[in-house]
Amino acid sequence: MTTTQMTYTILAEPTGAATPPPGPPPPYDPEHRVSAEAAGEDALRVRVLWEGQVLADSTRPLLVHEDGLPVRYYLPPEDVRLDLLSPSDTRTTCPYKGVAAYWSLPEAPDIAWAYHEPLAAVALIKDHLCFIGPAADPA
User: Fold this and answer.
1) Which residue intervals define the domain DUF427 in the entry (predicted)?
2) Which domain holds residue 55?
3) pLDDT of residue 136
4) Could you tell me if residue 27 is inside a domain?
């Protein structure tokens, strides 16, 4: 039996994390739901591109489901071109996931982030990197 692997390609863009919106962060909501799960062995391939350059290519993504947000794909560091990224000084705090650390490209600040000590609900995502951006049109 042959299985078809779905490929999801993200056209990465800077997060804007270094310039958070004005005002205090939203209050903690105990009803807010967040969870992480593995996509399943070779069930999903996630590629991340920046101006045609492959930044990541993984068949081992973790999926984070969070109220009010689209599914986020967290990729193992082994599947990310860390040689192209440099650590940023930017840190943000999510009341549901923990403190995020960021990575940048020379021309794209804070293009990826990870949680080194995530909260219990999303412990699986420890040290996995996430990128945001629109999905590319399927080929």
Assistant:
1) 46-132
2) 6-17+33-131
3) 60
4) no
In a domain, 25, yes or no: no
Residue 124 lies inside a defined structural domain of this protein: yes
Identify whether the C-beta of residue 79 lies closer than 8 Å to the C-beta of residue 71. no
SS3 content of the chain, % helix, strand, coil (to 5): 5, 45, 45
Tens digit of pLDDT for each residue in 5-54? 667 777 777 777 766 666 666 677 889 999 999 987 778 999 999 999 99
| Chain-centroid distance, C-alpha 16 | 14
Give the containing element (helix H, strand E) for 112: strand 108-115
How crowded is the C-beta side of 53, counted as CA atoms within 13 Å?
13
How many independent structural domains does the chain possess? 1
Per-position DSSP letters for 35-86, written without gaps between them: EEEE--TTTEEEEEEETTEEEEEES-PEEEEETTS--EEEE-GGGB-TTT-E
> What b/e readout covers 22-54, taking b as 16+ CB neighbours within 10 angstroms?
eeeeeeeeeeeebebeebeeeebbbbbbbeeee
